[in-house]
Amino acid sequence: MTGAQLPDMLPGMLPRLWAFALRLTGDKHDAEDLVQRACVRALERADQLQPGTAALSWMFSIVHSVWINELRARTVRSRASMEWDDQFVENVADPAGRTPEEQLMHGQIIDAFKRLPEAQRAVMLLVAVEGLSYQETAEAIGVPIGTVMSRLSRARQAIGARFGGSAGGNAGRQGSASASATSSADNGRGSIA
Questions:
Q1: Which residues form the RNA polymerase sigma-70 region domain (predicted)?
Q2: Which domains does the chain have, with CATH numbers?
Q3: Please, which residues have CB within 8 angstroms of residue 27's CB and are 6 or more apart in sequence?
Q4: pLDDT band at 163 (very low <50, low <70, confident <90, very high)
């Protein structure tokens, strides 16, 4: 894809970009503003989109970069204490058809996720929720792949610790919340819910 094709492709990317932005910001209005600023930046810099680059990964990178710049401008180093509204949970997964126990566990997983540091939360979102590979995630946020792997590992361990275990090496705990919440496939992709 080239930069000239971006305006035609951008509308199809907006739902995923908005969902990612919502998970980063925790507020639907902030997410809308973030996506709007990211789209403006992308259109201004469309000539920088290299042929063969995945446009969606490039856009995730821009959304993340704009978000980080916003955090720096606010001099906010940690977003762990931010209150997230109920709409965040609704956007992660539809609770319809779940038992009350499953809904409770899902809420606990989301709570543990909200407490992660921003860097770990962003990596977890891109890999586990958006389904990007480790390499795509590294490119999107501008860090080495090893950093993605270590942040993801620490995030999984932190979530697993909230459930009384370690997220890594839960092969023998098929039914544990941490295993189902933080498992990853062999291809470098995973899910949190």
A1: 14-75
A2: 3-74 (1.10.1740.10), 93-182 (1.10.10.10)
A3: 85
A4: confident
Which structure tokens are listed for 79?
């977003």
What contacts 166, CB < 8 A, 6 or more positions away? 157, 160, 178
What pLDDT, on the 0 to 100 scale, is given for residue 169? 43
| pTM for this entry | 0.52
Q: Do the beta carbons of residue 106 and residue 193 sit within 8 Å?
A: yes
Mean pLDDT to the nearest integer, 47-74? 84
CA distances in angstroms from 190 to 2, 44, 180, listed in the order given = 29, 33, 10
Give the list of residues 6+ apart from residue 130 with CB closer than 8 angstroms, or none.
16, 20, 60
pLDDT tens across 65-109, in order? Answer: 898 888 776 654 334 334 443 444 444 555 566 778 777 877 888
